[in-house]
Every structure is written in structure tokens, then in C-alpha cells.
Amino acid sequence: MVLDAQMPHPAAPSFAHPLGTDQVGRDVLARLLYALRISLIFGMGLSLIGSILGCLQSY
Fold it and tell me: Keywords assigned by UniProt (predicted)?
């Protein structure tokens, strides 16, 4: 078991990482864009289902 492993510190914003990095060294912008993609797909899908159901209700 390695007890003295070096953990990367959160980095400040730079040219390579415009929003910086988190405590594990992951790019914050990349994680934000990935989460945005999932949220938009989910929201658009539910909007489509809601629109279809609304049209059927009004018929």
C-alpha cells in the first residue's frame, strides 16, 4: 500500500484548462460539457414526449 502517493492539487485556470482542474486533476470544462450533453438530451427527449402527449390530449 502506497501511503505517500502524490495527489494533484486543483489547478487554477490556464490556457490548457480554461476552468481549471478539480482535486483529482480532471478538467472542469470537459466534465461540465459532458454533463451538459446528458442534460440536454434528457430535457429534449422529455419535451418531445410532453409535446406529443399534449397534442394527443387536445385532439
Answer: Membrane, Transmembrane, Transmembrane helix
Identify the CA nearest to 46 among candidates 36, 35, 54.
Answer: 54
Please give the Cα distance from 8 to 50 (Å, whole number): 45
Sequence length of the chain is 59
Q: Could you please report the per-residue DSSP string of 2-30? A: -SSPPPPPPPPP-SS-TT-B-TTS-BHHH
Helix (H) or strand (E) holding 34: helix 28-58
**Nearest alpha-carbon partner for 9 in 29, 22, 28:** 22
Domain ranges of the chain: 26-58
